[in-house]
Amino acid sequence: MKRVTGIGGIFIKSANTARLREWYQKHLGIQVEEWGGTAFSWAGPHNPDGHGTTVWNVFEASSNYFNPSQAQFMVNYRVDKLHPLLAALRAEGCQVDDKVDESEYGKFGWVVDPDGNKIELWEPPEKQ
To answer: Are the beta carbons of 76 and 90 closer than 8 angstroms?
Structure first.
C-alpha cells in the first residue's frame, strides 16, 4: 500500500497572523489570498497535467486545530487511501485520532508522531 504521496500543506501558528502573512508575501513572494493562505498548483512526472495543490496557511496562535500538539506548525501529507492507512497505523501502535473528516475537499485524518507533533493525512478528491 502506498502511504504518503506528497505534501498537501504547511500550516503555521502565529500570534500576529497579519504581520507573518505580510512578511511571507513581501520577502518570499507568497501571494496570500483573502482566506489567509495560498494554494500552489503543481505538475510532475507522476502528474503531467498538473492536477493538485499544496496549501500554505497561517493560523491564529490560539487555534486548537493542531491539538494535542504544542508545535507551532503542522504538515499535511497527501495519501493514496486514507482509511486503509489509518487502520495500518493503528495496527502498528501509532496514536491515531478517531475523527475523520470527509467533504468535497477530500478525506482528512490525523496521527501524532513520537515527538508529539500532530500530522494531517489527506486523501484528495479524484483528479486532484
So the answer is: no
Between CA 69 and CA 26 the distance in angstroms is 29
Q: How far apart are CA 36 and CA 12, in angstroms?
A: 11
Helices (H), 5-114: 17-28, 82-91
Do 100 and 108 touch, CB atoms closer than 8 A?
Answer: yes
In Å, the largest CA–CA distance within the chain is 45
Taking the C-alpha atoms of residue 124 and residue 62, their distance in angstroms, rounded to an integer, is: 27
Per-residue pLDDT of the chain (128 residues; tens, 9 = 90+): 889 988 999 999 999 999 999 999 998 889 999 998 998 877 667 667 767 789 999 999 999 999 999 999 999 999 999 999 999 999 999 999 999 999 999 999 999 998 899 999 999 998 66
Amino acid at 29: G
Cβ 99 vs Cβ 118: under 8 Å: no
Task: For Cα atoms 62, 65, 68, give the angle at the middle one, nearest 5 degrees.
Answer: 95
